[in-house]
Amino acid sequence: MTGSQIGRLTSVLVTMLALVLLLPVARAQADIGAYVLVDAKSGAVIEENNATRQWYPASLTKMMTAYVTFKAIRAGRISLNSAVVQSKNSLSEPPSKMGFKVGTRFTVDTALKIILIKSANDVAVALGEAVAGSEAGFIAMMNAEAARLGMSGSRFTNPHGLPDNRQVTTARDMAILAMALRRDFPEAREFYKHPGIRFGKKALRSANREFLLRVPGANGMKTGYICNSGYNVSASVTRGGRTLIAIILGAGSGLERTAFARQLFDEGFRKRGGRNIKSLTGVSAGPPADGYCRRNRSPGAKGYMARFDMENEKQGGFLFFKANREDVKVDEAGFTLANGKPDWAKILDRTLGPRRLAYRPLQVGLGKPDAAPATVGSAAVAVEIPAEDIPLPAANPVRRAQIQIRQKLQTTAAANVAGAAVAGASVAGGIPQAEVARPGAATDTAQAVAPGSIFRKGLDFTVPVPAPSPRRQ
Fold this sequence. Notes:
By secondary structure, the chain is of the alpha+beta class. Helix content is 38%, strand content 15%. The N and C termini lie far apart (60 Å).
């Protein structure tokens, strides 16, 4: 081989190496709607993709619910011991929920722990009513805070994040909110750092528990899911005195959002960051079309290992992060059980890391709420009001109409059941047939409740189960 040929070959190899180094970071971007990783103190953006695209926040909404509540506490309008009352309006919310009976009183402290760890929708509404006097008033406070913080792509229509296509945000805005919650109210960190709560004999796990128990330095913050948003998370990690915050919107599963967050943090702590999060302005695109969860399916066991296997990351070094992980060959024998099913314990260990902490849920009770405060100007004045005389907050007008329609349907259903029972009795020789109630039916208000129970039977501690994807059937 001549010297000129060697020179040309060397030139080609150098060019190919340069192209490899310039390849875009593929990671799991095809399945993540939007994300951003920022320095919690400076706001410097370390990584981002579609950070200004509007998205549905789902239960990340509850970070704003908590922010408004902590601000009301700081202003002296309420305290952590102020009373929150379960109203008919709050109880009408779908799961996830606690299902306390109407009139149940508990403290603001309890409510904050429940919404930030368990993510109960009924408690989020009851808390908003306690802070502002009505759900509508609280929503106005949420939007006022969003405007003040510079969350220009966000709008709130409820305090919990249940489906409403008018309620939108961006990864940028959620990062600004997460930074503000951590900076303005450091005490909030004691609420969202726990992997679960224990209420009486009920153990209620946080959807963020594996992240908190496995990822080094993990200390928050909130997860969220509705079908139109996919799996969202606001996560924070502190290492070496530096805290980073990741906002991930639109993952295909709970494990994907957690593993992707872990990967962002591991890479992010090696970088410095660039422009400030607030310099990302405007809205780049609208939210996804309805039914996002049915289009963005879970990667599956093999997909998780191809993208997030920590053993491969260690072996691949710097260049591995620039490669397309879809092309990685995966030896399934290492994470498959004898029956051929995935060994999820091993998959968790290899995508998130082994558990570093034991699961210890936070003990939570109703507390000892003060009398409901009467607000005079900005000062909260305690007024002694008998528990039975505490007025229930006014319902949201739209929800009041929904409740009335539901009550009419219940009345009609009861009449139909009674008619069927009479018909059955005549057919069975005059022996009335026993009425069979649907277990856990959301419209069943007549189920027996044990004396002194604070829960409405059939509705307590329930969580939504997404419909299976047609492609998996």
